[in-house]
Write a structure and sequence with these properties.
Radius of gyration: 20 Å
Distance between the termini: 43 Å
Number of helices: 15
Structural class: mainly alpha
Largest sheet: none
């Protein structure tokens, strides 16, 4: 395995941690800044929307620059944003720190996916992307529970100081292990990258990403409230329950990556359909602690098991111009995050209870499955037509 993949996973760990750890600390942050649950949720939604901006604008702006230098610069931006959040005297400053940290997120994963795929043979690209995203899953298994525990014991600001320190480690890892990749100036242009968006399959892939990932995070954003108010767990149990969810992420990411290298669309359809079923059962059985634990694991597994396939799918249909499309798909993940968090907050504010976000997530995921079925059918039809043309 190329050492560069390890470095990318280290960076993914730090960036993933800053995105997800806030979910377990949302009640503490809301209390300190005296804002509602829905307002606190904007620290997640605002982050996600800023990821979209960074994924598109920063990726486009740096398309001709050496990729290693770009990755290093993005990690520095991440460190600065988390330090500002840790120092924030009020809600507005905390939001500014979240936005600053988020700007690097989409471009890092978008460019990093292309770099990871370029380090291995063609038939192993989804697996390489899965290795990079292992850092993201490890952030959930190890970082988020520990960060939530740290925040509950020493105050939520201590968690963001710890994330800033991890960012420094990630910076050193990328500097030491990612190979110095020459500038792609001679073979890549923004105009060429934009051509990828002429493909209907690229746009359908983006829609699937928004809905599928939005469905999972529509359910997960307010999970701390679901676990304590519906399932009856103590607040101190939340960090360890997040370990269960994170374990599902790790398993799903690895299995999903391997299966996607064999059959992308089939893997995505199976995993997305399973996620719809899991979310519906979770919403129905959230009052049972045993069922909740099982549902958390399966939600993480099937939800994140789609990530390598979704990223590989859009890069495949983007052809020779994958960088901006890859970044756009990272943006789509976070549009989904923001949409799911917003819809879940609306459902809670409407008085529908703390299982309502899970139902919202199930509905969004079902919509993703429908779009995916259409996209896969179109792809099969195109392959069949091409085969007939060749035979003729």
């Amino acid at each position: 395995m190329p050492l560069g993949l390890i470095a990318l996973a280290i960076g993914a760990f730090g960036i993933g941690l800053t995105e997800f750890v806030i979910m377990g600390l949302l009640p503490e942050v809301a209390r300190e800044f005296a804002v509602s649950e829905a307002a606190a949720g904007w620290l997640i939604s605002g982050y996600a929307l800023s990821v979209v901006v960074g994924a598109l604008l920063l990726t486009a702006a740096t398309i001709r620059l050496p990729r290693k230098a770009v990755l290093l610069s993005l990690v520095v931006l991440f460190i600065l944003g988390n330090a500002l959040t840790a120092l924030a005297p009020d809600y507005a400053t905390a939001m500014a720190g979240r936005v600053l940290a988020a700007l690097c997120h989409g471009a890092f994963f978008g460019i990093g996916s292309v770099v990871a795929a370029g380090l291995v043979a063609t038939e192993k690209k989804a697996g390489a992307i899965a290795i990079m995203f292992t850092g993201l899953t490890a952030a959930n298994v190890l970082g988020v529970p520990f960060g939530t525990f740290l925040g509950q014991e020493l105050g939520w600001r201590s968690t963001f100081w710890a994330i800033s320190a991890i960012g420094l480690i990630a910076l050193a890892g990328v500097a030491a292990l990612v190979p110095a990749i020459p500038s792609p100036e001679e073979r890549v242009s923004l105009r060429r990258e934009l051509r990828a968006f002429r493909s209907t399959q690229v746009w359908l892939s983006l829609v699937v990403t928004v809905l599928a990932f939005g469905g999972m995070f529509g359910a997960f954003t307010y999970i701390a409230y679901t676990l304590t108010e519906v399932s009856g767990f103590a607040a101190g149990a939340v960090p360890w329950l997040l370990v269960v969810f994170g374990a599902g992420l790790v398993l799903g990411n690895g299995v999903g990556g391997r299966l996607a290298d064999r059959a992308i669309d089939r893997t995505l359809i199976v995993f997305t359909a399973a996620l719809v079923v899991v979310l519906a059962l979770f919403a129905l059985l959230a009052g049972s602690q045993i069922a909740t634990v099982v549902a958390l694991f399966l939600m993480g597994g099937f939800g994140f098991g789609t990530v390598p396939g979704l990223q590989s799918r859009i890069m495949a249909y983007a052809g020779q111009a994958p960088t901006l499309a890859s970044g756009a798909n990272i943006g789509a993940f976070n549009v989904g995050n923001a949409l799911g968090a917003w819809a879940g907050g609306v459902a809670i504010t409407a008085g529908l209870g703390y299982t309502a976000p899970i139902w919202v997530g199930a509905a969004m995921t079902a919509a993703a499955l429908a779009v995916l079925a259409v996209a896969a059918g179109m792809a099969r039809t195109r392959v069949a037509a091409d085969a007939v043309a060749v035979a003729a």
